[in-house]
Design brief:
six-stranded antiparallel beta sheet; 162 residues; globular; five-stranded antiparallel beta sheet; mainly beta
Length: 162
Amino acid sequence: FSYMSYARRVGVPLRVEFDFKPDKWNYRGPLLAATLTKSNDVRGRRLWGTRGTLRGSGYMLCLGWHDRTTDQIWREAEEVVQMDPGTHLEPGQWHHVVAQFAPPKLQMIVDGKVALEFEDENWINGLDTFSFFSAFADIAVDNVRIYEKTTAVSAPASASAP
């Protein structure tokens, strides 16, 4: 399993655009996920499942899954969406992906088509870390762009000198 996390904390709404290329893989296909978690859950975490002491954390938008050819959205330790069949990922080809975390909506778009979508009316608060998660394949990620909501700070309309 490989994780690559953005070093700066993020806020929502969050949009991450990237290109990725799956190459050699095991099982039935590659696994590539875009995740939004709490910063203290980044190390030594499981992003899915309920085995052992480590449980799912935050949201995971996942293309491919172990020995299945499905795509999923995970909320904490619960799989809330399963698309079967999942997105066909051509090996050795670049794919453009957009992952959006915009309360209450989660969405993943692959090559211009909505692959995953979910509305969570009980949005998990305090999520501040974006990561890529991959397994079972050699995956290249390139052209990563991260957009998040910013709060504009306005200057006073006028200032008077003493």
